[in-house]
Specification:
By secondary structure, this protein is of the alpha/beta class. The protein folds into two domains: 186 residues, Collagenase (Catalytic Domain), CATH 3.40.390; 55 residues, no CATH class. 27% of the residues lie in helices and 14% in strands. The strands form three sheets. Strands 1, 4, 5, 6, 7, 8 and 9 form a seven-stranded mixed sheet that branches. It has a two-stranded antiparallel sheet with strand order 2-3. A two-stranded antiparallel ribbon has the order 10-11. The longest helix has 31 residues. The N and C termini lie far apart (39 Å). About 28% of the residues have low confidence.
Length: 277
């Protein structure tokens, strides 16, 4: 299979998307909330145990902080983020595209064509990854359920509207940074014409997600491709309810239950839009 440039194919014009600004605002809000929680816990420790100085160990900073040589304690109840095992943190920066075209999926609407590529050296088979993507995007609970669009995977870069990349954490961080997104090697992202899935999340999901890895993988495909289709972030509609697929479930469920699909029982399932986020 021929190598693929991480810049991807030339894409058709994409509608303006405030995704970079919204993610930065969201992360700033989470950092402030985490800092307040840390100060509250520190004050409680001082009052109860008379602890002075650095009484609480660990790094309680940015919830998207990437693991270093030692474990990092993540905010927002995400648990400990360990150094990755079983897959590389860095790759070649070159991508190999899956071959062949898939059948057209969906009943009606404009046809959105996508290509799938895996970073060379990531330890993942491009055709196997493409089969998982095809299965998700062709599912009647995915975006085609709207009846307003159809999807098809293509091998020809000139025919593709966007490319879905599976990239190692270091490479995904660099690619996302080209669009002004700060992922710190932890999260996935979407730029115009490029959906960039982080290999670490693909292999490990996130701590305390409360659902099998397959559910998280389905969620992250639908979430990032949803951005490509113009969808914005949404909030949890209430404790115990399914999380909207456009909720940032990687950062925590906020009382909701993991959910990977934009359509439930044949209807679009959504939460309240997050203004400016």
């Amino acid at each position: 299979m021929p190598p693929v440039s991480p810049q991807g194919p030339a894409v058709r014009p994409d509608p303006p998307n405030p995704y970079a600004l919204r993610r930065r605002v969201r992360m700033r809000r989470r950092r402030r909330r985490t800092a307040l929680i840390g100060l509250t816990l520190l004050g409680a420790a001082v009052a109860v145990a008379g602890v002075t100085g650095d009484g609480l160990g660990g790094d309680h900073g940015d919830p998207s902080a990437v693991a270093g040589p030692a474990p990092v304690v993540a905010g927002e109840g995400a648990g400990d983020r360990q150094q990755p095992t079983g897959y590389p943190r860095a790759g070649s920066g070159e991508f190999v595209a899956a071959g062949g075209d898939s059948p057209v999926q969906g009943a009606d609407g404009p046809l959105r064509r996508y290509r799938v590529a895996v970073e060379r050296g990531a330890g993942q088979d491009p055709d196997a990854f493409a089969a998982e993507v095809d299965e998700v995007l062709g599912d009647p609970r995915s975006w085609i359920a709207s009846g307003g669009l159809r999807v098809q995977r293509v091998a020809d870069p000139a025919a593709a509207d966007f490319t879905i990349f599976l990239a190692t954490p270091d490479t995904s961080e660099r690619m996302c940074a080209e669009g002004g997104l700060r992922t710190e090697g932890y999260t996935s992202c979407r730029l115009p014409g490029r959906v960039i899935l982080n290999l670490a999340r693909w292999m490990d999901a996130v701590p305390d997600y409360g659902a099998p890895l397959a559910v998280y993988r389905t969620y992250v495909i639908n979430h990032e491709v949803g951005h490509q289709f113009g969808e914005l972030h949404e909030g949890c509609p209430g404790p115990g309810r399914p999380a909207p697929v456009m909720q940032q479930q990687t950062y925590g469920l906020d009382g909701c239950v993991a959910n990977a699909w934009p359509y439930l029982d044949g209807k679009r399932y959504a939460g309240e839009p997050l203004d400016g986020v």
